[in-house]
């Protein structure tokens, strides 16, 4: 799994790429916690995530909880089909704020 | 071309020849010759060599130019020269049993002196014509033991004097023929005895192998037991039972038509087929049809097999079986009533076409604490002490009388009544019983599954269907991608669409990471075995590990209102799959998880 963090004006955009599974989710978790630790809105770009498992979803949930505690938001953007299915199975698709594109996400955090 | 060679072929010193000595000396020599011949036959391992020495001694002793010893072959139609002495070598010569003077002698069982063969119409001149030797006179005495004709000894052309045999020569030859006959008879019997012993040894070996084909008795409270007593060394009956890895018990009992070695070989074949196919073909009716087809394909000499084969589930008390022309099994219900369950199909090995379709009809029965008895007619037709047959009535009585005993005890009680050890059995005795009493108690006590431990060759043993994929990987997180790709491809291969395939991948991936994280506690040295089996309507995923058995009750899907990561994977598995369950702990430890995903109906996934 690879990742890329971009500092946008209104949010930190972190793009994960590849499979987020038992092998890579500890890395994904570190990256996500690092982002939400910056106390700014975070957009997680999942467009290039082919597969995400329960441990990856757990890292997202943990990050969301931390972001909310500090009064920030965490938005999932451009969620790939595969990742979306896992979120649906976990019935977390209503828990997360999900936007179709990074632009939509940025608009969302500006509200 | 008279020969005067030494005749001391054996170690025994032989008396000097001479028919014309003093009477006392003659008898003494005669006895000595007989004794020497007897000794030679007794100590020799080679009858032909002893015959050769005997004819030398006799020819020498009676002082003839030549001699020949003829034996009747086993058909009694042909006389064959087995040994000869003198100018013409005719060993191996055969005559019809009524040919020549020797033939007549054997036929009439009377010794003869023919002083001038040219005047005897029975003389067979063929030999002289071939050898160029001139036969003038013949002395011939038959050999027999009791009523059994063995052959004759013929002497040719007396030496010295007027060249004619005398009455005293005939007496002498008759005495020696009788002695030789006895010796030959004894030697043949000894040979037959050796052969019989060899056959007996081989039969004993065959019986030992056959006994090893029967299953070992289970523990005292094991619900299935069988017993087999062979009427002869080997048996045409058989029974077998063996646990399946899902806790059920596969059983059979059968009877091959006929007795003896051919029936025993057929038994070995049938029981091997049953044991081999029974582990994968889990429907008794289909299993019997398969065995029937196999036996018909290589049918021999009109042999056939009557047989009951089925599966008993100790966790439910349900028995399902097919009966191919066998004696009706007896169901003894928990209230003490008997029910006979007659065959609905012909015996195996008669015709593959006798059975409609691909399956023998099956009977399903809930034992509910009762017992099922399957037996061969050797039991019901066995003789009781008073000489009457046991019959089905007697069998029922014995079962009732011994109700307090365990299943093995009941069978032994029946067998003891028919096989009391005091007389040969009329027929092989074979009995098999399935007693649901103990499993019923276990079920009543809340133990819903009686786990019968069995070694597992493959995970697939419990499943009907085709193994599409079998993967063994170490318990390492970086191998999960391999598994996901393989599972995804397999699902697509079976006609699952993208979405369904993706769901399946999620469930299998989660199951695998549960094994890595929980069963093996993160250790990378464990082993994970995944098998994907395609059935006509579903895909079955078997996931096996070899870690310590986990407490199944602790594996629960999480409550979704409580958003915590733990248990999410299990929730995915249950959400995606139509059935997720842990199977009974395999005999060699570890855990076996079974997940079933129904295949969508459609033209693409017809199998």
Description of the molecule:
- The complex is a heterodimer of chains A (111) and B (607).
- By secondary structure, chain A is an alpha/beta fold.
- Chain A has a single domain, classed as Transcription Regulator spoIIAA, CATH 3.30.750.
- Chain A is built from 4 helices and 5 strands.
- A 5-stranded mixed sheet of chain A has the order 1-2-3-4-5, with helices on both faces.
- In chain A, helix 1 runs parallel beside helix 2 (54-69).
- The N and C termini of chain A lie far apart (32 Å).
- Chain B has 607 residues and is α+β, with helices and mostly antiparallel strands.
- Chain B folds into 3 domains: 23-190, Beta-Lactamase, CATH 3.30.450.40; 214-444, PPM-type phosphatase domain (Phosphatase 2c, domain 1, 4-Layer Sandwich); 459-605, Heat Shock Protein 90, CATH 3.30.565.10.
- Chain B contains 14 helices and 21 strands.
- Chain B has helices at 23-43, 47-62, 100-108, 126-131, 167-213, 260-278, 284-297, 377-380, 391-401, 407-418, 437-444, 480-493, 498-519, 568-576; strands spanning 64-72, 78-85, 94-96, 112-114, 138-145, 148-158, 224-229, 237-243, 249-256, 305-313, 318-324, 330-332, 338-340, 362-366, 371-375, 429-435, 466-474, 527-534, 538-545, 579-582, 591-598.
- In chain B, the strands form 4 sheets. Chain B has a 6-stranded antiparallel sheet with strand order 3-2-1-6-5-4, with helices on both faces. In chain B, strands 7-16-15-12-13 form a 5-stranded antiparallel sheet.
- In chain B, a hairpin with a 4-residue loop joins strand 10 and strand 11.
- In chain B, helix 1 (23-43) packs parallel to helix 5 (167-213), helix 6 (260-278) crosses helix 7 (284-297) and helix 13 packs antiparallel against helix 14 (568-576).
- Chain A binds chain B through residues 19, 21-23, 51, 53-55, 57-58, 61-62, 81-82, 85-86, 89-92, 95, and chain B through 477-478, 480-481, 484, 499, 502-503, 505-506, 509-510, 513, 516-517, 560, 563-565, 568-569, 571-572, 575-576.
